[in-house]
Amino acid sequence: MSNQASVLDNLEEVRAMIRRHKFNDYVFSIIGLIALMIGLLTLLTLFVDLVMDGYPRFTFEFLSEYPSRRAAHAGLLSAWIGSLLVMIVTFLSAVPMGVAAGLYLEEYAPKNWFSDLIEINVTNLAGVPSIVYGLLALGLFVYILDLGQSILTAGLTLGLLILPVVIVATREAVRGIPVAIREAAYAVGATKWQVVLHHVLHYSFGGILTGVIIGMARALGETAPLITIGALTFIAFLPPSPITDTPPFLNFEWLSSGFTVMPIQMFNWLSRPDHAFHMNAAATGALIIVVTLLMNGTAIWLRYRIRKNIKW
């Protein structure tokens, strides 16, 4: 009887422990939900406030006019064109190098203290404040390489900013590929490069693409590094067109042109005392938030579609 009573007591203790753990899980889920709702409601409140303030400026003319000293006639044309061109340079300078570096570190680099040191530094660089990259670019691209305060300098600066993000995202996506896929490819005679190109890169493409888009969305909203390298706050002209009607149909003069971007134009309007300019700034802020959310939403959707179509 004593043994049976002891077993019953142990069972009761186990049930009590399970109930306690379930209660703790429930409390943690409620706390997490509250924290999530606070963040979302704060963002929603700020976004609605921006939309209400900038609603009168949501017109086609606002996107097709140059900045002006008159708030009612000021537009975002040079700013959003500048942002687009800077993002092109950022993408070309950071994404191929970042993906290649991530693949090398994960698939080819020997596992020793040196690769561990590189991994630690790459991870730390992903959290470095953006102003540090601006100071680095000012010294390297503007003064040493003499690239000037140009679109090329801005794109390279933001490329340095998102390069660690792309590397980390690539490595995490590659790590998620099952080892069985690699072993199956090796078993049928595939080389290391064929395994990486046709299997590892193929199956991890969704995760890599997500990291790239999130990094580009971060670069789109950066202001501090671009101000550091001398981005203009008022520009009433467009850079030369990258495409021409004469062979070879490409023009690279735009890379050395002066520029401004949407966050800097927004900062310029906010610094003015006239409330009408603040309406322009609110409309610009709402537009930046919408573009950022669309980019992040596109990343999530593409990752879902790619993973759904992949047959493991």
UniProtKB/TrEMBL annotation:
Q: Where in the cell is it found?
A: Cell inner membrane; Cell membrane
PROSITE patterns tied to this protein: ABC_TM1 (PS50928)
Identify the domain of life. Bacteria
Keywords, alphabetical: Cell membrane, Membrane, Transmembrane, Transmembrane helix, Transport
Q: Which residues form the ABC transmembrane type-1 domain?
A: 80-299
User: Single GO cellular component annotation?
Assistant: plasma membrane
How the protein sits in the membrane? Multi-pass membrane protein
Q: What is this protein called?
A: Phosphate transport system permease protein PstA
